[in-house]
Amino acid sequence: MKLNSNDIARHAGVSQATVSRVLSGSAHVREETRERVLQVIRELNYQPNAFARAMKTKLSGTIGVVVSRITNPIVPEILLRLASRLTAHGRRMVVWNTDTEGEDGVANAIRQNVIDGLVFTAAGEGSAAMAAALDTGMPIATINRHVEGAPCDQIIGTNFDGARTLADYLTNSGRTRIAMVNGPLDRSTLRDRELGLRRGLRDAGLDLPDNYYASADFAHDAFRDLAMKMMDQTAPPDAIACGNDVIAFAVLCGLRAAGCSVPDDVWVTGFDGIEMSGWDVFDITTMRQPLDEMAAVAVESLLKRIERDQSEPRMIRFGTELVIRSTTANTPYKRTT
User: Fold this and answer.
1) Angstrom distances, CA of residue 196 to CA of 98, 240, 265, 332
2) Which domain holds residue 277?
3) pTM (2 decimals)?
């Protein structure tokens, strides 16, 4: 028997209008009601007519997500969380990897009205796709990325404050020769983390001298070699703070190749708290971002914009959490304040 939204409404004990709001991803539905309707949809294997819905609402039901460096483990972690939230709101997700496709595909999708909104996990101030979306008035949001001056909702972690806390942890644990290995500074996350670490070191009366700082474009071997060179000094660092967990993985490989023991000879920290950072082979001390909460807010914010929410764009910051593991000898954090 072919089902329709009235059948779903009857089984769920709600109105047909409520079912329509759930299917359109409206935020104006109580969460318990939404879950009840979605449960009935799953049980009855209801497949709404996407074309009919698009004709009625002028919406495609599809959200675009723009990523880069999809091999970075944090990217699929973010995508999984976004997909879960979008599915719960009755939306589909299409992904563009700008490293292989550039931004032309995104711009074309915007012009052809095949997506209702965009989430950027990768964008800079010169992003052509973001500029095209803003020009057409398409709702957009960013997650784990800050684009200065962009008039859209931006959901980010407290990268500056998190790195400052990390510096406080290292200095209060007796580390005095603290180095940093970072990636390209056109990424707001890495730039803010470097600034936060430098501020935290200054607060402790230390600095980050040139011979204790290195950066490179994302390539495992490049970070591995930087770590080896950094330890080949008369006074090598006793701690290396990395711009993110993936950089920390490469640094650990370089230290191992150089014959250095972690944490006996040198401590290593990462940033992001991706799942792999807790694997036994790495077990990296890191600053964890609350990706579940960030993805939920990114989706909710975007859907409200699609529903013509005209409130001022917001910068929403989520606190980061210090996760202490074996690369810093499981040393407890003795806070300054």
Assistant:
1) 28, 15, 25, 21
2) 159-289+322-328
3) 0.80
